[in-house]
Amino acid sequence: MSKLSRIAALVLCPVLGCGAQSAPSDLGPDGNLEAVRGPEAPLSDGGTPTWWRPTPATPIHWHWQLSQDFSFPRDVLPNKTVYDLDGELTSAETVAKLHALGPDVVVICYFDAGVYEDYRSDKARFPASVIGNPDEGWDGSYWLDIRQLDILLPIMRDRMINWCKNKGFDAIEPDETEVWSNDSGFPITKAQNNAFNKAIADLAHSLGMSVGLKGNNTEAPELVNYFDWALTEQCWEYDECALFKNSFIAQGKAVFNVEYNVNPNCTRANQWHINSSRRDLELVGPTASGYLYQPCIPDTQATW
Fold this sequence. Notes:
Layout lengths: L12 H4 L45 E4 L16 E5 L5 H8 L6 E7 L2 E3 L13 E4 L6 E4 L4 H16 L6 E5 L14 H17 L3 E5 L5 H4 L5 E5 L7 H9 L5 E5 L6 H7 L2 E5 L13 E3 L9
Parallel strand pairs: 1-2, 2-3, 3-7, 7-8, 8-9, 9-10, 10-11
Antiparallel strand pairs: 4-6, 5-6, 11-12
Helix pairs in contact: 3-4
């Protein structure tokens, strides 16, 4: 699990307009999108999705930075084509500068979708009824009652618009969405958890953005049709990587993996075309003293 352990200099609430807002018109009375559309489904105009849908055909060299604000050009790394950064704390200017590095550069917008964080600028929008037990190990973070879609989906949609789409991000990484298997304080079932993940994916696609499945390792086969790619943590440590090989990789969808406590099985990762690496738990920037990055495929290598 990777989150921001400490966040400073948050964007002021008035700038993002984080007051209460009505539910978007494309949400039904139960909070679900009325038109469910998986990533392979045709668009309403008969076309096909134009958002980023990476494949496992060749390695994808990427940089993931969360607990330290990304600074351009300080944190730019050679041969990287994908940057995964905190959506609220990363400016549109930074996203534009990254895109200017080359036509293949993709910038992913990270935010927590399954927990309440008392340091976020829109924290006042979460009523007490949806806030549950502490997310153990992460100060200021509490599990959400993801069954209450009518409350949470409008908030998540506004995050996608204000923190991600309007800043020029290409894709969304919604984190902390595996609530049902944690001590959330709510009797959430796996089916309800899957429904929340599907709704999040549908929201992203309705905005024309790519979206990845974060975590939910054992649920990957059930959710693969709704997401464009996957990011899994510690699947080698817990012997769960085959779940992604047999779902996302089998459907031609890229998989990103990081390990914190063990080295990835690079031989198998490369055979399966999973972008695997060993990283520091805090996911700091490359100039920080705790930075660790040990990829299975060197960033200078273009083939498996």
